[in-house]
Automatic annotation (TrEMBL):
The keyword Membrane applies. The chain crosses the membrane at residues 96-119. It holds the Pfam family FecR. InterPro entries: FecR, Ferrdict_sens_TM. It comes from Lignipirellula cremea. Keywords: Membrane, Transmembrane, Transmembrane helix. This is FecR protein. Residues 165-252 form the FecR protein domain. One of its GO terms (molecular function) is sigma factor antagonist activity. The keyword Transmembrane helix applies.
Length: 435
Protein backbone atom coordinates (compact mmCIF):
# COMPACT_ATOMS: atom_id res chain seq x y z
CA UNK A 1 0.00 0.00 0.00
CA UNK A 2 1.15 3.51 -0.70
CA UNK A 3 1.12 6.28 1.89
CA UNK A 4 -2.15 7.74 0.59
CA UNK A 5 -4.04 4.45 1.03
CA UNK A 6 -2.57 4.03 4.52
CA UNK A 7 -3.76 7.52 5.47
CA UNK A 8 -7.23 6.92 4.03
CA UNK A 9 -7.52 3.59 5.83
CA UNK A 10 -6.52 5.20 9.11
CA UNK A 11 -9.09 7.96 8.67
CA UNK A 12 -11.81 5.46 7.80
CA UNK A 13 -11.02 3.25 10.80
CA UNK A 14 -11.04 6.34 13.04
CA UNK A 15 -14.52 7.26 11.75
CA UNK A 16 -13.52 10.46 9.89
CA UNK A 17 -15.79 11.48 6.97
CA UNK A 18 -14.09 11.04 3.58
CA UNK A 19 -14.63 13.16 0.51
CA UNK A 20 -16.15 11.49 -2.53
CA UNK A 21 -12.86 11.08 -4.38
CA UNK A 22 -11.04 9.69 -1.34
CA UNK A 23 -13.89 7.31 -0.53
CA UNK A 24 -13.97 5.99 -4.09
CA UNK A 25 -10.20 5.58 -4.16
CA UNK A 26 -10.17 3.60 -0.90
CA UNK A 27 -13.14 1.47 -1.94
CA UNK A 28 -11.51 0.63 -5.27
CA UNK A 29 -8.20 -0.25 -3.57
CA UNK A 30 -9.80 -2.58 -1.00
CA UNK A 31 -11.71 -4.37 -3.73
CA UNK A 32 -8.36 -5.74 -4.95
CA UNK A 33 -7.69 -9.06 -3.06
CA UNK A 34 -3.94 -8.43 -2.96
CA UNK A 35 -4.31 -4.94 -1.50
CA UNK A 36 -6.97 -6.17 0.92
CA UNK A 37 -4.59 -8.91 2.18
CA UNK A 38 -1.87 -6.30 2.54
CA UNK A 39 -4.27 -4.07 4.49
CA UNK A 40 -5.09 -6.93 6.88
CA UNK A 41 -1.40 -7.57 7.43
CA UNK A 42 -0.85 -3.88 8.08
CA UNK A 43 -3.72 -3.74 10.62
CA UNK A 44 -2.21 -6.81 12.31
CA UNK A 45 1.15 -5.07 12.56
CA UNK A 46 -0.49 -1.95 14.00
CA UNK A 47 -2.26 -4.04 16.67
CA UNK A 48 0.98 -5.81 17.61
CA UNK A 49 2.82 -2.51 17.90
CA UNK A 50 0.03 -1.06 20.03
CA UNK A 51 0.13 -4.09 22.32
CA UNK A 52 3.88 -3.73 22.76
CA UNK A 53 3.52 -0.04 23.53
CA UNK A 54 0.89 -0.80 26.15
CA UNK A 55 3.31 -3.21 27.79
CA UNK A 56 6.14 -0.62 27.70
CA UNK A 57 4.99 2.75 29.11
CA UNK A 58 8.24 4.45 28.10
CA UNK A 59 7.81 3.43 24.45
CA UNK A 60 4.21 4.64 24.56
CA UNK A 61 5.28 8.01 25.98
CA UNK A 62 7.89 8.53 23.25
CA UNK A 63 5.37 7.52 20.57
CA UNK A 64 2.85 10.05 21.86
CA UNK A 65 5.51 12.77 21.88
CA UNK A 66 6.38 12.02 18.25
CA UNK A 67 2.69 12.03 17.28
CA UNK A 68 2.18 15.37 19.06
CA UNK A 69 5.17 16.87 17.22
CA UNK A 70 3.81 15.68 13.87
CA UNK A 71 0.42 17.27 14.61
CA UNK A 72 2.08 20.60 15.45
CA UNK A 73 4.14 20.58 12.23
CA UNK A 74 1.05 19.67 10.21
CA UNK A 75 -0.93 22.56 11.73
CA UNK A 76 1.91 25.03 11.05
CA UNK A 77 2.13 23.90 7.43
CA UNK A 78 -1.62 24.24 7.06
CA UNK A 79 -1.54 27.80 8.48
CA UNK A 80 1.17 28.88 6.00
CA UNK A 81 -0.56 27.40 2.95
CA UNK A 82 -4.30 27.37 3.56
CA UNK A 83 -6.11 24.81 1.42
CA UNK A 84 -8.22 26.08 -1.48
CA UNK A 85 -11.89 26.44 -0.73
CA UNK A 86 -13.94 24.05 -2.81
CA UNK A 87 -17.54 24.88 -3.61
CA UNK A 88 -19.92 22.51 -1.98
CA UNK A 89 -22.21 20.72 -4.35
CA UNK A 90 -25.27 20.01 -2.23
CA UNK A 91 -26.64 17.59 -4.84
CA UNK A 92 -23.58 15.30 -4.39
CA UNK A 93 -23.74 15.23 -0.57
CA UNK A 94 -26.01 12.11 -0.42
CA UNK A 95 -23.60 10.33 -2.79
CA UNK A 96 -20.64 11.26 -0.59
CA UNK A 97 -22.44 10.03 2.50
CA UNK A 98 -23.35 6.73 0.82
CA UNK A 99 -19.77 6.19 -0.35
CA UNK A 100 -18.44 7.03 3.12
CA UNK A 101 -20.83 4.54 4.66
CA UNK A 102 -19.75 1.86 2.16
CA UNK A 103 -16.09 2.54 2.86
CA UNK A 104 -16.69 2.45 6.61
CA UNK A 105 -18.50 -0.88 6.24
CA UNK A 106 -15.67 -2.31 4.14
CA UNK A 107 -13.12 -1.04 6.64
CA UNK A 108 -15.14 -2.70 9.40
CA UNK A 109 -14.95 -6.00 7.50
CA UNK A 110 -11.19 -5.59 7.22
CA UNK A 111 -10.97 -4.87 10.93
CA UNK A 112 -13.09 -7.93 11.85
CA UNK A 113 -11.00 -10.20 9.63
CA UNK A 114 -7.81 -8.79 11.11
CA UNK A 115 -9.14 -9.24 14.65
CA UNK A 116 -9.91 -12.89 13.82
CA UNK A 117 -6.32 -13.38 12.68
CA UNK A 118 -4.98 -11.49 15.67
CA UNK A 119 -7.02 -13.36 18.31
CA UNK A 120 -4.51 -15.15 20.54
CA UNK A 121 -4.70 -18.93 20.53
CA UNK A 122 -5.79 -20.51 23.83
CA UNK A 123 -2.89 -21.36 26.12
CA UNK A 124 -1.89 -24.98 25.80
CA UNK A 125 -2.84 -27.27 28.69
CA UNK A 126 -0.24 -29.68 30.10
CA UNK A 127 0.14 -32.72 27.83
CA UNK A 128 1.62 -36.15 28.48
CA UNK A 129 2.56 -38.89 26.04
CA UNK A 130 2.92 -42.34 27.59
CA UNK A 131 1.43 -44.26 30.50
CA UNK A 132 0.97 -42.45 33.78
CA UNK A 133 -0.94 -43.17 36.98
CA UNK A 134 -2.53 -40.36 38.93
CA UNK A 135 -1.82 -40.68 42.63
CA UNK A 136 -4.75 -40.33 45.00
CA UNK A 137 -7.20 -41.17 42.20
CA UNK A 138 -8.46 -44.25 40.43
CA UNK A 139 -6.02 -45.72 37.89
CA UNK A 140 -6.27 -44.14 34.46
CA UNK A 141 -4.24 -43.07 31.48
CA UNK A 142 -5.28 -39.48 30.65
CA UNK A 143 -3.46 -37.48 28.02
CA UNK A 144 -4.69 -34.18 29.43
CA UNK A 145 -3.75 -33.63 33.05
CA UNK A 146 -4.61 -30.75 35.33
CA UNK A 147 -2.45 -28.54 37.47
CA UNK A 148 -1.83 -29.87 40.98
CA UNK A 149 -2.15 -33.44 39.63
CA UNK A 150 0.50 -35.74 41.07
CA UNK A 151 1.38 -38.75 38.98
CA UNK A 152 3.99 -41.44 38.48
CA UNK A 153 5.42 -42.36 35.08
CA UNK A 154 4.91 -45.98 34.07
CA UNK A 155 7.72 -46.50 31.62
CA UNK A 156 9.15 -43.50 29.76
CA UNK A 157 6.82 -40.49 29.53
CA UNK A 158 7.07 -37.21 27.62
CA UNK A 159 5.39 -34.07 28.92
CA UNK A 160 4.90 -30.67 27.29
CA UNK A 161 4.10 -27.49 29.20
CA UNK A 162 3.03 -24.25 27.56
CA UNK A 163 4.50 -25.19 24.19
CA UNK A 164 8.02 -24.24 25.33
CA UNK A 165 8.96 -26.84 27.98
CA UNK A 166 9.65 -30.39 26.76
CA UNK A 167 10.25 -32.83 29.61
CA UNK A 168 11.23 -36.50 29.53
CA UNK A 169 10.40 -38.55 32.63
CA UNK A 170 12.22 -41.78 33.41
CA UNK A 171 10.32 -44.83 34.61
CA UNK A 172 8.83 -44.53 38.13
CA UNK A 173 9.47 -40.77 38.22
CA UNK A 174 6.92 -38.97 40.40
CA UNK A 175 5.98 -35.32 39.75
CA UNK A 176 3.26 -32.77 40.45
CA UNK A 177 2.25 -30.26 37.76
CA UNK A 178 2.11 -26.75 39.19
CA UNK A 179 2.61 -23.23 37.84
CA UNK A 180 0.43 -21.08 35.57
CA UNK A 181 0.48 -19.94 31.91
CA UNK A 182 3.94 -18.66 30.93
CA UNK A 183 5.15 -19.47 34.46
CA UNK A 184 5.39 -23.25 34.27
CA UNK A 185 6.52 -25.22 37.28
CA UNK A 186 6.74 -28.87 38.29
CA UNK A 187 7.57 -30.52 41.59
CA UNK A 188 9.92 -33.49 41.29
CA UNK A 189 9.29 -35.83 44.22
CA UNK A 190 11.54 -38.64 43.07
CA UNK A 191 13.07 -40.01 39.89
CA UNK A 192 14.79 -38.40 36.92
CA UNK A 193 13.73 -35.78 34.37
CA UNK A 194 15.42 -34.23 31.34
CA UNK A 195 14.07 -30.82 30.33
CA UNK A 196 14.53 -28.62 27.25
CA UNK A 197 13.27 -25.05 27.59
CA UNK A 198 12.92 -22.60 24.70
CA UNK A 199 14.37 -19.20 25.73
CA UNK A 200 12.21 -16.07 26.04
CA UNK A 201 8.93 -17.98 25.83
CA UNK A 202 8.18 -18.05 29.55
CA UNK A 203 9.48 -19.11 32.93
CA UNK A 204 10.18 -22.65 34.06
CA UNK A 205 11.03 -23.87 37.55
CA UNK A 206 11.58 -27.25 39.17
CA UNK A 207 10.79 -27.67 42.86
CA UNK A 208 12.79 -30.43 44.54
CA UNK A 209 12.70 -31.69 48.16
CA UNK A 210 15.74 -29.49 48.87
CA UNK A 211 14.66 -26.30 47.12
CA UNK A 212 14.02 -24.58 43.80
CA UNK A 213 15.73 -24.70 40.40
CA UNK A 214 15.24 -21.56 38.27
CA UNK A 215 15.83 -22.41 34.63
CA UNK A 216 17.23 -20.03 32.01
CA UNK A 217 16.54 -21.32 28.46
CA UNK A 218 18.49 -24.52 28.63
CA UNK A 219 18.72 -28.31 28.57
CA UNK A 220 19.43 -30.10 31.84
CA UNK A 221 18.83 -33.22 33.93
CA UNK A 222 17.64 -33.48 37.51
CA UNK A 223 17.58 -36.61 39.69
CA UNK A 224 15.95 -36.94 43.12
CA UNK A 225 17.04 -40.04 45.06
CA UNK A 226 16.58 -41.36 48.57
CA UNK A 227 19.52 -43.43 49.86
CA UNK A 228 18.38 -46.81 51.19
CA UNK A 229 18.30 -47.05 54.97
CA UNK A 230 19.00 -50.24 56.90
CA UNK A 231 16.46 -49.45 59.63
CA UNK A 232 13.68 -52.00 60.03
CA UNK A 233 11.27 -49.11 60.50
CA UNK A 234 12.57 -46.59 57.99
CA UNK A 235 9.30 -44.67 58.09
CA UNK A 236 10.00 -43.32 61.60
CA UNK A 237 13.37 -41.79 60.67
CA UNK A 238 14.28 -38.62 58.79
CA UNK A 239 14.80 -39.44 55.15
CA UNK A 240 18.07 -38.43 53.54
CA UNK A 241 17.60 -37.03 50.02
CA UNK A 242 20.06 -36.42 47.19
CA UNK A 243 19.44 -34.04 44.27
CA UNK A 244 21.70 -34.14 41.20
CA UNK A 245 21.66 -31.33 38.60
CA UNK A 246 23.55 -31.60 35.28
CA UNK A 247 23.40 -28.77 32.70
CA UNK A 248 23.88 -29.52 28.99
CA UNK A 249 23.32 -25.95 27.76
CA UNK A 250 22.23 -22.60 29.16
CA UNK A 251 22.19 -22.06 32.90
CA UNK A 252 20.28 -23.18 36.00
CA UNK A 253 20.10 -21.23 39.27
CA UNK A 254 20.10 -23.78 42.09
CA UNK A 255 18.47 -22.49 45.25
CA UNK A 256 19.33 -25.71 47.06
CA UNK A 257 22.09 -24.28 49.20
CA UNK A 258 23.06 -21.03 50.86
CA UNK A 259 24.06 -18.99 48.92
CA UNK A 260 22.34 -20.02 45.64
CA UNK A 261 24.59 -21.56 43.02
CA UNK A 262 24.45 -21.01 39.23
CA UNK A 263 25.38 -23.97 37.03
CA UNK A 264 26.39 -23.40 33.40
CA UNK A 265 26.95 -25.65 30.40
CA UNK A 266 28.84 -28.79 31.37
CA UNK A 267 28.43 -28.29 35.13
CA UNK A 268 27.16 -31.08 37.39
CA UNK A 269 26.46 -30.82 41.10
CA UNK A 270 25.08 -33.14 43.81
CA UNK A 271 23.17 -31.64 46.75
CA UNK A 272 22.27 -33.62 49.88
CA UNK A 273 20.00 -33.00 52.84
CA UNK A 274 17.05 -34.31 54.82
CA UNK A 275 13.34 -33.86 54.35
CA UNK A 276 11.57 -31.91 57.08
CA UNK A 277 9.44 -34.49 58.87
CA UNK A 278 7.74 -35.22 62.17
CA UNK A 279 7.19 -38.63 63.79
CA UNK A 280 4.59 -39.52 66.37
CA UNK A 281 1.08 -40.62 67.19
CA UNK A 282 -2.04 -39.20 65.54
CA UNK A 283 -4.17 -37.31 68.08
CA UNK A 284 -6.88 -36.09 65.69
CA UNK A 285 -7.47 -36.47 61.96
CA UNK A 286 -9.95 -35.16 59.42
CA UNK A 287 -10.06 -34.78 55.67
CA UNK A 288 -8.04 -31.56 55.69
CA UNK A 289 -6.04 -31.57 58.96
CA UNK A 290 -3.98 -33.97 61.06
CA UNK A 291 -2.69 -33.33 64.57
CA UNK A 292 0.39 -35.30 65.52
CA UNK A 293 1.84 -35.73 69.00
CA UNK A 294 5.61 -35.93 68.74
CA UNK A 295 8.19 -36.55 71.42
CA UNK A 296 8.47 -32.87 72.32
CA UNK A 297 5.36 -31.13 71.00
CA UNK A 298 2.00 -31.35 69.26
CA UNK A 299 1.88 -30.23 65.61
CA UNK A 300 -0.97 -29.63 63.17
CA UNK A 301 -0.65 -30.31 59.44
CA UNK A 302 -2.99 -29.38 56.59
CA UNK A 303 -3.83 -31.09 53.31
CA UNK A 304 -4.08 -28.66 50.38
CA UNK A 305 -7.54 -29.16 48.78
CA UNK A 306 -6.03 -29.51 45.29
CA UNK A 307 -3.57 -32.18 46.47
CA UNK A 308 -5.64 -35.34 46.02
CA UNK A 309 -2.94 -37.56 47.46
CA UNK A 310 -2.53 -35.52 50.67
CA UNK A 311 -6.31 -35.36 51.15
CA UNK A 312 -6.64 -39.12 50.71
CA UNK A 313 -3.82 -39.92 53.12
CA UNK A 314 -5.03 -37.45 55.76
CA UNK A 315 -8.60 -38.81 55.64
CA UNK A 316 -7.29 -42.38 56.09
CA UNK A 317 -5.58 -41.65 59.41
CA UNK A 318 -7.16 -42.49 62.78
CA UNK A 319 -6.23 -41.51 66.35
CA UNK A 320 -3.46 -43.74 67.63
CA UNK A 321 -1.81 -44.38 64.24
CA UNK A 322 1.97 -44.17 64.39
CA UNK A 323 3.16 -42.25 61.32
CA UNK A 324 5.78 -39.93 59.92
CA UNK A 325 4.63 -36.79 58.06
CA UNK A 326 6.88 -35.05 55.55
CA UNK A 327 5.79 -31.47 55.12
CA UNK A 328 6.50 -28.02 53.68
CA UNK A 329 5.64 -24.60 55.05
CA UNK A 330 3.54 -22.02 53.24
CA UNK A 331 2.29 -18.73 54.72
CA UNK A 332 3.02 -19.92 58.25
CA UNK A 333 1.18 -23.27 57.94
CA UNK A 334 2.52 -26.80 57.56
CA UNK A 335 1.22 -28.71 54.55
CA UNK A 336 1.38 -32.48 54.11
CA UNK A 337 3.79 -33.70 51.47
CA UNK A 338 3.89 -37.43 52.26
CA UNK A 339 2.62 -39.70 55.01
CA UNK A 340 4.58 -42.84 55.88
CA UNK A 341 3.78 -45.45 58.45
CA UNK A 342 2.56 -48.97 59.18
CA UNK A 343 0.49 -50.71 61.81
CA UNK A 344 -1.62 -53.65 62.93
CA UNK A 345 -5.21 -53.66 64.08
CA UNK A 346 -8.00 -56.03 65.04
CA UNK A 347 -11.58 -55.37 64.04
CA UNK A 348 -14.78 -56.61 62.45
CA UNK A 349 -15.31 -56.82 58.67
CA UNK A 350 -18.22 -54.47 57.92
CA UNK A 351 -18.14 -54.44 54.11
CA UNK A 352 -16.21 -55.73 51.12
CA UNK A 353 -15.73 -53.93 47.81
CA UNK A 354 -14.16 -54.94 44.50
CA UNK A 355 -11.20 -52.73 45.44
CA UNK A 356 -10.81 -53.35 49.17
CA UNK A 357 -12.19 -54.27 52.57
CA UNK A 358 -13.77 -52.20 55.35
CA UNK A 359 -12.83 -53.00 58.92
CA UNK A 360 -14.25 -51.34 62.04
CA UNK A 361 -12.25 -51.04 65.23
CA UNK A 362 -14.30 -50.68 68.40
CA UNK A 363 -15.08 -47.04 69.04
CA UNK A 364 -14.07 -45.87 65.52
CA UNK A 365 -15.82 -45.57 62.21
CA UNK A 366 -14.99 -48.23 59.58
CA UNK A 367 -11.78 -47.85 57.58
CA UNK A 368 -11.20 -48.83 53.97
CA UNK A 369 -8.04 -50.80 53.16
CA UNK A 370 -7.01 -51.50 49.57
CA UNK A 371 -4.26 -53.83 48.30
CA UNK A 372 -1.07 -52.43 46.82
CA UNK A 373 -0.99 -51.72 43.09
CA UNK A 374 1.37 -54.05 41.25
CA UNK A 375 2.66 -53.52 37.70
CA UNK A 376 1.78 -50.93 35.07
CA UNK A 377 -1.52 -49.90 33.57
CA UNK A 378 -4.46 -52.34 33.48
CA UNK A 379 -4.02 -52.86 29.74
CA UNK A 380 -0.45 -53.96 30.47
CA UNK A 381 -1.48 -56.44 33.15
CA UNK A 382 -1.13 -54.10 36.13
CA UNK A 383 -3.63 -54.03 38.94
CA UNK A 384 -4.32 -54.53 42.63
CA UNK A 385 -2.49 -57.39 44.34
CA UNK A 386 -4.49 -60.44 43.20
CA UNK A 387 -3.42 -62.68 46.08
CA UNK A 388 -4.60 -60.11 48.61
CA UNK A 389 -7.89 -59.70 46.74
CA UNK A 390 -8.43 -63.46 47.11
CA UNK A 391 -7.84 -63.23 50.86
CA UNK A 392 -10.31 -60.36 51.07
CA UNK A 393 -12.97 -62.37 49.21
CA UNK A 394 -12.43 -65.27 51.61
CA UNK A 395 -13.01 -63.12 54.73
CA UNK A 396 -16.75 -63.17 55.57
CA UNK A 397 -18.58 -60.01 56.62
CA UNK A 398 -18.93 -59.96 60.37
CA UNK A 399 -15.73 -61.93 60.94
CA UNK A 400 -13.06 -60.71 63.30
CA UNK A 401 -9.75 -60.16 61.50
CA UNK A 402 -6.21 -59.10 62.22
CA UNK A 403 -4.94 -56.74 59.53
CA UNK A 404 -1.54 -55.17 58.84
CA UNK A 405 -1.21 -52.03 56.74
CA UNK A 406 1.28 -49.54 55.36
CA UNK A 407 0.77 -46.01 54.02
CA UNK A 408 0.87 -45.55 50.26
CA UNK A 409 -1.92 -43.41 48.78
CA UNK A 410 -3.97 -44.26 51.85
CA UNK A 411 -3.82 -47.40 53.93
CA UNK A 412 -2.80 -50.49 51.98
CA UNK A 413 -3.51 -53.91 53.42
CA UNK A 414 -0.32 -56.00 53.54
CA UNK A 415 -1.62 -58.93 55.61
CA UNK A 416 -5.03 -60.32 56.55
CA UNK A 417 -5.91 -63.15 58.94
CA UNK A 418 -9.37 -64.29 59.99
CA UNK A 419 -9.49 -64.95 63.73
CA UNK A 420 -11.35 -67.94 65.08
CA UNK A 421 -14.19 -66.97 67.43
CA UNK A 422 -13.41 -67.71 71.04
CA UNK A 423 -15.32 -70.77 72.27
CA UNK A 424 -16.96 -70.63 75.68
CA UNK A 425 -15.54 -73.48 77.76
CA UNK A 426 -17.94 -75.27 80.13
CA UNK A 427 -16.72 -75.07 83.73
CA UNK A 428 -16.29 -78.56 85.23
CA UNK A 429 -18.75 -79.37 87.92
CA UNK A 430 -17.69 -80.04 91.54
CA UNK A 431 -19.51 -81.77 94.37
CA UNK A 432 -20.16 -78.38 95.92
CA UNK A 433 -22.02 -76.94 92.95
CA UNK A 434 -25.79 -76.78 93.35
CA UNK A 435 -27.89 -79.01 91.16
Amino acid sequence: MNDLLVELLLRALDGEPLEAGDAARLQQALADPAIRAEAIAWVRWQATASDQMRQNPETLRRSRERLFAKVILREKRASLTPPPVRPVNRRRRPVILLRSAAVAALALVVLVVAAWFLAPAPYQSPLTEGSIRLLGSLPGDPRHIEREDRFVAIGGVEMELGGYCDIELAENTEVTVKGSPHKEKIELHQGQIRARVTPRKGQFEVLTPLGLLEVIGTEFETIVEYPVTTSAKSWDRDRAVQVTVAVSSGAVICRLSDPPLTLNKGDRRVFTGELPSAHGSVVAAAEATVTLKTENSQLTFHAAPADKLAVREASALRPGDQVSIEWYEHEGQRYIQNVRGEGTLRGIVTDKQPRGIEVAVEGQRPQLFTPHWIGGMPRDGGGLDRKMLQQIRAAPIGAQVELTWSMSEGKRVTGLRVLEPEKTREKPKTPFDPE
